[in-house]
Each structure stands twice: as C-alpha cells, then as structure tokens.
Write a structure and sequence with these properties.
The radius of gyration is 32 Å and the shape is globular. Helix 6 crosses helix 7, helix 7 runs parallel beside helix 25 and helix 9 packs parallel to helix 10. The protein is built from 25 helices and 22 strands. The strands form four sheets. A seven-stranded parallel beta sheet has the order 12-13-11-14-15-10-16, sandwiched between helices. Helices cover about 40% and strands about 20% of the residues. The relative contact order is 0.10. With about 700 residues, it is α/β, with parallel strands linked by helices.
Length: about 700
C-alpha cells in the first residue's frame, strides 16, 4: 500500500510550525479535534462580523459592531478598584466613550494618546442614553487600518484561544495548501459552478459577507461534497468487496411462497410486493445480497423477511433470522410459526436459554439441514453453531449489530445473502451515510387493518384523570402500556421511577392487574412479565423503554408515556407504534411536565399531526442533527467537519451515484481522475479505503 502522496505533506505536519502556535496552543487546539494543519484547514468560520469602515457611529443602530476613525479626547480613570476606566472619543459627527475594565492607566495612555487619531472597531451600545464601546476588538493607527478585513470571519474556539490566533493560523495553513488535481466529475463541477479545491478553501476562510457562510455558498458546498464523496467512495469500495465475495444464486420455485400467501388473511401491499421482488432478484444473482429493508412501525417487514427466508428454503438451503433480544426472538417465532406451518417449513428457535441435551439436539438438526429456518438471538454467532447450507441471514434492528457482526453472520454460510431490517425510518441522507454500502428497500405503506392511533397531550397535573380512564378501560378488558420517563442516563434511577409508578398503579388498580419490566431485571423475569402481559393475565404493563422495539400485543390499545418531553421524536413514534395493532380504537396519551421548551412543544405537536414515520424522521433530523438521530455512539456515523447532513442532504445522493459510477468506470482508480480521488482519500484520512482497494 503506497504511502500518502508528497503533495499533501504541508497539511500533515506539526501544528507548531504555524505562526503563533506553540506547544500550549497546540494542546488547546487538540481539545477541538484539531491536531494537524489539515484539521485547521477544515475548521471553517461559523459566522462573521461586518467591519466596513463608517464615518460615524450614527450610521448604525446600536447594539451593532462598527469601525470608525476617532480623535482621542480625555481619559477618565476608574475611581474604584473594580470600576471601569473611560476614554472620550469623537468621530466625524458625534462623541462617545470607550470603556475598559481592569485596564492599567499607562497601557491605556499608550494605546490611546489624547489628541491623536485612531481607528477603533467593536460593539457600540447605549448605556443610560450614552453611546459606548466596551473593550474595542481593534485599536489601530490610521495607517494600519487596511489590515482589518471588511468582513471578519469568526471561528469556533475553546477556552484559552483567541479569534486573532485562530484567524492567523488558519490563514497560514490555507496559504500552504497545495493546488490539487480535481477529483470531482468535470460535468458536475461545471453544472454547480464550484471552484477548484484550493480556491474553495481560500474562499471559505475569507467570506465577504453572510451569504458566503451559508451551506449553499459554492465554496462551502464544494468542500462538503468532497467529504461526502470520500465517504461514499469508501462505502462503494466496501460494497464491492462484500459483493465480490461470490454469492450463491438462490432460485426460488415460488411453490412455498404461494402457500404462505394463500394462508394470509389479507393481500400484501404494493410496497411489500415490490420489496419481495427486489430481494428475490438479488438472491437469484451471482453477487452477495447486502440489502436494508426499511419500514415504518407496522409496515409488514416480518412478512417480507419470511418470504425471503422461504426463497432460501425453496432453493434447497436454510435461513436464519436474528433478533437483538430474547423477547423479540420469541415474538418472531410466534409470528412466523403459523406462516411456516402453512408452507410446511421447519422452524426452530435458538437462544442463550437453550442448554445441554436440548441445545445439542437443535445443533445436530441444524447441521443436518432438518431445521430449515432458525430464529435466534446472538447465540447463533457461537462457534459450535453450524448450518448445513445457510443461504440467507436476516438481521432485525440493524443499529444493535455493527457491520462486523453482519459480516460474521454472513461467514456462517458460503457467501450467504444478508438482509437487514430496521423499524426506524431513517431520512434518506442518513440512510446513505450509514448504509451507503447497502441497497435499500423501503416499505412506505401500511397493511390494511391497522387502526390509526389518536394522540393526546395531557399535563402532569391531570394524572389522576388518566388513572381513572385506565381503570375504566381495564374493566372493559382493554390492555395498556405505561412507559416511565428516561431519567438521565442512569438505569438505576429509571428503575426506581418505574418501580415507584408500578406500586402506585397497583394500589389504584388492584393486585395482579399491573406488571413491571425494566432494564435491571434478570432476562428470565423480564420475559415472564412480558409473557403474562401478552397472554392477557395482566392488563397494564409498566415499563422503561425496553418495550420500544417490536413488541406485539394486538389487544393493547392504550399507551401512556410519562414525561413525554424527555424522549426523542423517533422514540416516541416507536413507542406509539406498540398500540393500534388490533381492531380496537387506540390512544396514546403523552403526559408532560409544563412549561414545555419550544423544542419539546414542536416535537409533541409533530406527533399529533402525523403518523408517517418518514416525515417524523426528517423533522427529527432537522431538530436534533444527524448524530443524535442514529445515536452516533452505536451507529458509527461518520463525523463530518464541513458537510451538514441536515442542510445538504441532496449532496449525499449525488456523491453516492458519482462514487459508484467512478468505480464502475475505473475499478483500480488509475485514470487521472481516479488518481485524484486517491489523493482525496488520503486527504480525508480514509485509510480503510486503501485496504479495500488492495483487496478489490
């Protein structure tokens, strides 16, 4: 693997070589994630200050920043130790005061000698009707005033760093930046009117006004695109390697699928039929399938996944479906069993609970091929689990499994196809950022028979009314969830809140009516409590968010969410999706603690307006930002320095198709544009891409 090209050396040296940066400053910059000149080049100003020269402060309406030439008048030293010192100055039309706290008199007199002219720039405010400028940002001699930019960029800082230092270091870095050959498709560059790379960098660090700071400014768009393109190129390489692993064509006969469809009480939606067709085509192909099945709560992903598993069985192989928890694995088993029976498919479950002889018998049947579809938790990853002929692995709730685990599961079968299901609708830009190596099928319709859920906001003060409502509902044979608030990040505190609520509801509704599940319970107890609720032995289930993903109790028609304002939009949408699964009219009551913040109010209002998970996800992204929506810690979502996934979503799709096309035309990246793209990958520190290239 060749090393970083020489042309990039100026960007990868020590920060301490830059003007004004010593060991101490370098340490401060490192706290901001700036460790080399390249990082500094990509730390763009986030705002700017208009320093246009004015004849008088009368030209602006305070409070405002102004730059004027003044004649220095008398000094009024501070009378007390902590009081301000003032200097009276006069511009072309009026007098005003410069105000300094803790300034030494001799320093002030040196800076502002009475009778001389100076250029001052800073924020003018009115105080008791008198215009004053507290601590001017700049005090210059008239001859030095040209050094002041008309529009001064403002950089992000950390404590101990000054704007002046950042601006100086950034300017020096950009000055040293090499002129790089372009990796952007020339037609795209011309169409968008984007500058070259170095020109874009210079422009982004020297904005001439507010418009140059917007994500839509050509220089910024260009630099954002470079980041997204490097990311998508890496994902496209990963996809090529993953698909280059020869798949095994699995041709279904359609016979078993027909039996499953006949047994269904309803007609699949057009979206389900489309997804099944996409998956079946992938499975029949020579390359390994790596597909994401994305559907909203209750869009019928399980049926699509099962039909795909049936194709694997029709082709003479086996399939496996993985769930993140034991509860979900058992639920998949219950949901799939009638379908499997209708088609005569042998279905079995394997979880951490299987021990001894029973486990050994299952493993033997699996290795012989007697079990055709296996449902399980991560217990199916274990070394002693062998399939006779694994053709398809279905992974439920992607974000609990990383890419590495996805690969590991695929490795259990010679080139097994992989289908990942997620119930979290992800906005397209994020889906492309996180799953750009995968192909995506979307279920955007709901199957018939799901009743809309009416959503109401109720203030905490009306808790007693809610409990009365619950009492009546339970008497009529209805079931309800009661979700307790998320208290900080502490499961112990969450548990206390849940236990407390459980005891109060039990006192109000009667013994044996209320069940409890929380994260601190042993798995067996949790499952037992869930099972009692599913069987209808308890009517109300008090829970922390463990019930968020996938639990299915058709009879449950009420969802109470306590302190709803403490949850994210996507989470609230997931929780609400636990009801409305049967024919019974369902309600979701969101209890909140007034007063609500503006953000919380907007979140809850969106949920009242719509049940469309994709629209909710787009709103969530706009409100919280990309990292939060996917939970960056677990999603491995790339951290972009310039690109803004919320405001530049469309660029991500262009970057993906461009990256895939470049690789199709130039698989080794050896054309002039391919070589330029290699330089970009080094510049963006995409070392993984080079490992993938050498494999490719």
């Amino acid at each position: 693997m060749p090393g970083r090209p020489d042309i990039l050396f100026p960007l990868f040296g020590d920060l301490e070589g830059l003007p004004g940066i010593g060991a101490k400053t370098a340490k401060l910059l490192a706290q901001m994630g700036v460790e080399k000149p390249r990082d500094l080049a990509f730390t763009l100003p986030h705002s700017g200050i208009d320093r246009t020269f004015r004849t008088s402060i009368r030209e602006v309406v305070p409070p405002a920043t102004v730059t004027v030439e003044v004649t220095v008048g008398r000094h009024m030293p501070s009378r007390t130790k902590s009081g301000p010192s003032r200097v009276v100055v006069e511009d072309a039309e009026t007098t005003f005061q410069l105000v300094f706290f803790h300034a030494r008199g001799d320093w002030l007199e040196k800076q502002l000698p009475t009778g001389q002219r100076r250029v001052v720039s800073g924020k003018v405010e009115l105080f008791d009707g008198i215009a004053q400028m507290v601590h001017p940002d700049h005090i210059l001699r008239p001859g030095e005033a040209d050094s002041l930019p008309a529009f001064e960029p403002v950089y992000p800082l950390t404590q101990g760093l000054t704007q002046r230092l950042m601006a100086k270091a950034a300017a020096a870095t950009v000055e040293r930046a090499p002129d790089l050959p372009d990796w952007i498709d020339p037609a795209l560059k011309a169409r968008e009117g984007w500058p070259g790379w170095r020109a874009a960098l210079l422009a982004a660090h020297a904005p001439a006004g507010q418009a140059d700071l917007a994500p839509t400014a050509p220089a910024r768009q260009r630099l954002a695109y470079d980041e997204l393109f490097a990311h998508q190129l890496t994902l496209a390489l990963a996809r090529r390697v993953e698909r280059r692993g020869k798949g095994r064509p699995s041709h279904g006969t359609g016979a078993l699928q027909a039996k499953v469809l006949q047994a269904l009480p309803y007609q699949p939606t057009a979206a389900q039929e489309r997804a099944v067709a996409e998956i079946t085509a992938d499975m029949a192909g020579e390359k390994r399938m790596n597909r994401l099945l994305q559907g909203d709560v209750g869009a019928g992903k399980t049926l699509v996944a099962f039909l795909a598993l049936v194709v694997a069985v029709e082709a003479g192989g086996q399939g496996v479906m993985m769930a993140p928890t034991e509860i979900l694995a058992r639920q998949h088993l219950q949901g799939l069993r009638p379908l499997a029976e209708s088609a005569g498919v042998v279905l079995e479950i394997l979880t951490g609970r299987d021990k001894g002889a029973e486990r050994a018998a299952k493993l033997a049947a699996l290795a012989k091929g007697d079990i055709q579809v296996l449902v399980g938790t991560h217990a199916v990853f274990q070394k002693d689990v062998h399939f006779q002929d694994l053709r398809l692995a279905v992974v439920d709730e992607q974000h609990r499994f990383g890419v590495a685990q996805r690969m590991e599961l695929g490795a259990k079968g010679q080139g097994a196809d992989v289908l990942v299901m997620t119930a979290t609708p992800i906005p397209r830009s994020l889906a492309l950022a996180n799953y750009g190596d995968m192909d995506v099928s979307v279920l955007d319709e709901k199957p018939p028979g799901r009743t809309p859920v009416s959503t109401a906001l109720v203030s905490n003060g009306r808790l007693d009314e809610v409990v009365d409502h619950l009492r009546r509902a339970v008497a009529e044979g209805k079931q309800a969830y009661w979700v307790c608030p998320l208290v900080e990040e502490s499961e112990v505190v969450d548990m206390t809140a849940a236990t407390d609520r459980f005891q109060r509801l039990r006192a109000a509704l009667g013994e044996g009516v209320v069940g409890l599940v929380h994260g601190q319970m042993p798995a067996a107890e949790k499952d037992a409590a869930m099972a009692r609720f599913v069987a209808g032995q308890t009517s109300v289930l008090v829970a922390t968010t463990v019930i968020e993903v996938g639990v299915n109790v058709p009879n449950a028609s009420i969802m109470v969410i306590e302190r709803a304002e403490s949850f994210g939009l996507a989470q609230l949408h997931q929780l609400r999706g636990r009801v409305g699964r049967g024919a019974e009219k369902s309600t979701c009551l969101m209890l909140y603690q007034p007063p609500l913040s503006e953000n919380a109010e907007r979140r809850l209002a969106i949920l009242r307006e719509t049940e469309d998970g994709f629209r909710i996800a787009e709103e969530d992204l706009a409100m919280r930002g990309a990292g939060d929506v996917l939970g960056t810690a677990q999603s491995g979502l790339p951290r972009f320095r310039i690109a803004d996934l919320e405001r530049q979503a469309a660029l991500m799709a262009v970057a993906q198709s461009d990256a895939r096309k470049l690789l199709a035309d130039d698989p080794e990246l050896r054309s002039p544009r391919g070589e330029a793209a290699r330089t970009l990958l080094w510049l963006m520190e995409r070392d993984r891409a080079f490992r993938l290239l050498s494999v490719g």
